[in-house]
Amino acid sequence: MKYIERTYRLLHRQEDLAFFQVLIKETDLDIGVLRSKLTPELVAGTRRQVMSVRSQLEQYIACDVTFVKTLKPYKPVPGAPEIVKLMADAATRAGIGPMSAVAGTIAQYVGGYLVKRSREVIVENGGDIYIRSERMRKIGVFAGPSPFTNRLALEIQPHQTPLGVCTSSGTVGHSLSLGRADAVVVLAPSAALADAVATAAGNLVQEEDDLQAAVDFALGIKSIIGAVAIKNDKLAAAGNIKLAPM
């Protein structure tokens, strides 16, 4: 399958890192590591890691179809793989179905593999990011038609990482959202949790007046560091989060 550049990926690209892509079925990762660490062996190992994680998830889903279909919290069957349990736990804390956490969970798994090989790591999976860094990073916010797109960024400090920075949108992309937010961005130590909570908070936004309720909901969940919700030219933010111009 041919790789197609996603333009929003420019918002998390860092000049001091080297980036490569891993594309396997629905999983489309953009990965940044220290330039000195980018080798064919690292790329091959990362690809094997993605295939392993996907295989575990696919084999489980084949035996438990409800896991992939339900929009409500769900307890996996005994003996489920760790990735399945992590997704289910994150989604239960957010009050929604486990597939809401799939992109963030895969980014987190791959990031965990890479941090053993590079001090600086960014893994982006469909707008959901795992980051580990020893320097301040700016991550741009993509909010579709909102005027904040390409103008607003999050400042991520080293002490906050490893960190999940995950985005849900009701106006951009193919992921399921029951809301109409241009973007809801959630920060948490777990990218799986950040992904699930971003989806749940995004579901609450139908109008601009819902933005504050969405970020309040996110901050009401233990371990969430911060949240930003955007619709049109309106924005709400809460928590330990620093906004900056791009």
From TrEMBL:
Source organism per UniProt: Desulfoscipio geothermicus DSM 3669
InterPro entries to which the protein is assigned, alphabetical: ApbE-like_sf, UPF0280
Name recorded for this polypeptide: Thiamine biosynthesis protein ApbE
